[in-house]
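Team,

Forwarding the record for the chain on the shared tracking sheet. I've put the sequence and predicted structure together so nobody has to dig through attachments.
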Amino acid sequence: MTNDTSPQVQRLQRLLSYLTQDPGNDLLRQDAIAVACDVGDGATARRLLDERAVRGEMPALPWGFLAARAALADGDLDDALRQWDALAGDVAVGVEERMLAASAAAQLRLRRGGPDAVAEAARTLAPFVDGATPSSPLPDAAQAAWLRVEHHAGRLREGLDWALAREAAGQLAPEAAGVASLIAMDANDVAASGRLSRIALTALPEQGEALVSAAALSLVDGQPEAALALNERVTAARPADGRAWTQLGAARLMALDLQGARVAYARATELMPGHAGSWHGLAWTQLLLEDLVEAERLLDHALEVDRNFAETHGALAVVYARTGRRTMAQDALRRARGLDAGSFAAHYAQALLDHPELAGEDMVALATRLLDGQQLPNGQRASSLLGTVRRR
């Protein structure tokens, strides 16, 4: 038992005290198990279940759900998954409860990961979601789980269309709207992402995906203080979310906090070692800190992760140009433009090659003029971001 004195822990202690006086009270025991799970005391939850099992039959509702939660709280993911799967397939259990169990099983599979996790999660939910019309009522948990499966599978357009159809039919639940907002962001539908995140956060102010979407949109809006505050909040709420740390790195860059950006991007690379963009962000931060050797090392690693990311080739062109390797810079620049003619880093590198005599503020001013024709999704000129990366 933890020494925590939070209200929930204190409540659990009171419930356990009551149970010693009335051990046959199932409602009291169920309440104690649920609270134990809430505070992460899986060992106590499982002990209470074992004590009840000695007294005889335990119907799937609610004991099966409590057993799954207790296993999850105790870190026994395999047992939790077995419990959820059993409930999802139990025809004696109501359809909505079976859907909730299937949703929990699907999300646990996504959490555990592995090569077949997404396909297995989809198979778990398919019996309940396939064939459902946009106007068919579905529990929020089932909608959110299905959209997370679509997102993990990379079916962005399919997932977003599914969510938008339910929204149009008045059947998109708040949690699902939050997941859909992140799908919309990744599908480059900024307007839909903003609308869906607002729907989710109005009902659920701490909804995870909606917060990440709102934080990303704050970067697009180009308001340093608001972007920094929101992205700091997201990483505090989701410390294991690599994407949140990448966004915080960008927000700190926007706020001119280069050392803070370096810390955030470094954390993102730890959590998402296969995400080239995070390595690229860390490299740009080192470049802006004038550590060109480390920036080049990081960019070389980013190329090992993904050789087809134009911004990495463009950033290498910047490093080569800054260190006088003009031929290498031109080669990297060609590769960047071949992948993306509008690459920000490629434009910046070209400015350095065209005007090697310039440095510091003059160099930024020239790149600003070159980028004046490009626009961000919110209509602002891309050059508006250049002023945010000047060194202190």
